[in-house]
Structure formats: structure tokens, C-alpha cells
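Two records follow; treat each independently.
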Amino acid sequence: MPIYVCSACGYEYNPTVGDPEGGIQPGTAFEDLPQDWVCPVCGATKDQFQSV
């Protein structure tokens, strides 16, 4: 699964790790994140992320 990077702050969403503090389990693909999920660092929305 690709890693997605926040274009606002550089945070990397790694599907292997998920976002445990945000309630996102490891193994959750970026596409499967809830529509209202935001960057845990800066609050950017999903549309501000790009795959690398």
C-alpha cells in the first residue's frame, strides 16, 4: 500500500501503521479512511494528501 504525504505539513500516513491516536487501525488503506478524517498534525483534509 502506498504512503500518503500531507502537502501542508509533510505528515506521512502509512497504512501499515494507521493512525492509532485517531482511532484508525493498522492496515487501513488511505482510500478507506473516513471522509472526515484529517491530518493529525495540522488538520488538513484528505484531498491535501498525495501518494508517494
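The next record belongs to a different protein.
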Amino acid sequence: MPEAVTHVLNISGPSGAQTYDIPAGITTLGRQAGVEIVLDDQLVSRRHAQIECTEAGCTITDLKSSNGTKVNGVRLQPDDPMTLHPGDVIEVGAFALTYEQVVTAPEPEPIAEPPAPPEPTPEPPEPEPALPPIRVTALSEQAAPEEQAAPPESEAPPKQESRRKPKAQAKEKAEEPPPPAVPPPAITEPEEEPEPAYTPPPGLSVTESRYVQYLPGIYHTSFMKRFLALFESIYAPIEWNVDNFDLYLSPGTVPAGFLPWLANWFDLTFDHSWGEAQRRALLEEAHLIYARRGTRWALSRVLEIYTGHKPEIEDTGEDLDPFTFTVTIPVAKSEINATLIEQLINTHKPAYTTYALHFAG
């Protein structure tokens, strides 16, 4: 039997990570309900793209989405299918979908068992012995009642005992008490785990509430404090979010789930290779990098944030062709993804220039 191939999408995004097995046929990606893969993000169109899998492989097609679909950083043309290869990263809005193929080995065929030996032919049963013939006597040959000899007294009791013995045995069996019934095994129900005790948000209590200060003194009771504490546990966190919303606007203090929202301000989309610290560092300096975009400093700073090493960019050498520069990364090529480095350079370099990438590790 041939090996079975399963097509898999490893999805990571604002809502977390999950794995989706792609069935044969067409699988649609989008934001609206009713598609096979729902990606809840404002940058995702209602019907964004579709993946079609056959025995030959899988292809992805952009369905004229508003923000486009990228495969390994390259934007797809609408309605132009592209073949997927294992390891390809599909970018849809704030989501990164990594395409993989899982090969399952076929099960070994069962070994045929040898045929069972034929059963021996049963021997025919022995014939039963023939009964002696019954002699019928005419009435005239029978003796008169007076002439018939009375049976001996010793023979009568055995006949009576033979007739009464089965009845006596049946009576004794009827009088025996029935065996005691075996009780069914006891069914032990699983013990229910106790519900965890309610824990209020930090800074709040279940027995005290600051809302009681707004009521007359007659209501300053233990019951009223506990009653108002229920409402304070709901409304106080909302007030905190409103009062401290400026923390959501700074890359250094914003929760990790809001980083794609801040990146959208600069038309940035991070793939799975960007760590949280790298994303925060790039967003902190995005206003400086975009102001000098297309310069050697801006390109060097982006590569330094991503790789952790400052690259060497040479664009004034005498042996260089016009509008050509070289980029040297002080890392071994086996320790970094050269394809992603080229994508960053193509995004942040001047459009009319060409370059050569080197690794010095």
C-alpha cells in the first residue's frame, strides 16, 4: 500500500495557536462565519483565500482580498493559484499559517495462516440391539382370575417404592429454600471536585467596598459592603482600563496580544519568526526607521533588531556597480533563515537598487 499524506496547517495569531488538518477539495479562509477556517481579524476579508488539495498536492489562491495574501513574504496575485511546499508560511492579516505534510507509513499486510487440517469423518453409530418380540395371548388362553397366582409379597413393595420415590424426591426439592440472591456490585460514583473559591481582582475584597462611602451612614453595614463588593468587582476593572489606556499605546507596556494592533499603525505584519522582544523593539523605533526608510542606517537597524547582530553594509566601494550594495551578516548561514533576511532587505531597501548578501560566521 502507498504511504498516506496528510496536509496540515499550523495556525498562530492573536487568538493563540492551533492545528488544522486540510481535507481533500477546497478549504476557504476568511473572517465571516460559514468558511472552513475562520480568522477573526479586521485585516482578513470575509472570503480571503482558498486552499485546494488533490492527490498531486495543495495550492492557495487569493480571492481578491482587501489586504492581500502573502506566501513566504511574496504577495499573491488575485485568482492566481500558487503551489504550496512543506514549510511555506502563509500570511493572512495578523495570522501566520505554516503548511506541513505528515506522511503515515502503511500498515503491514496480515500474514495468511495455514489452512486448518480437515476434520476426521465421524464413524457411523453402532446399530441398537433389536428388542425381543412381544407375544400376544388370546383371552381364551388367559387364566381365570381365581387361577392367577398372586404376586409374592416381597415383590409388591419394591414396585410401590419405585413409583413413590420420584414424587418424594420432587417434594424434597420443592421444600428446599432457594439460594440467597447475590447483591449487585455497588456502583461508586466519582467524587465531584469542589468548585474553587472566588478570588476578586487584585486590590478588591469580597467583604469591603469603597462604594459604601457614597451611601448614608445607616447603610454602612456588613451585608451592604459585601453586596456592593459584587458590583465593584465588575466595574472597577473597567475603570482601570479607561484610566490607564495610555499603557496600551506604548510598545513597552502593551500586552502581547495587542502588538499586532500597534503594528497595523505602521502597516507591519509580523510572522512567527519574530519574538516578542524583537516586535517591541521594532515598534519602539518604528517612527525613526520609517522617517529614514531607504537609507543605510534604517536597513542596518532593522536587520540588527531581527538578528541580534549589527550587519556591515557597503555601498561606496570602487568595485561595486552603480546602485549596488553588499550586506554582511556576522552569523553563520546555517544559524539563520537567509530567505527571511532577503525579504527584510527587499522591503526596506530603495526600489531601484540591487544587493549581494554574505554571511561571515
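Discussion point: The first helix runs from residue 156 to 175. How would you locate this feature using only the C-alpha cell line?
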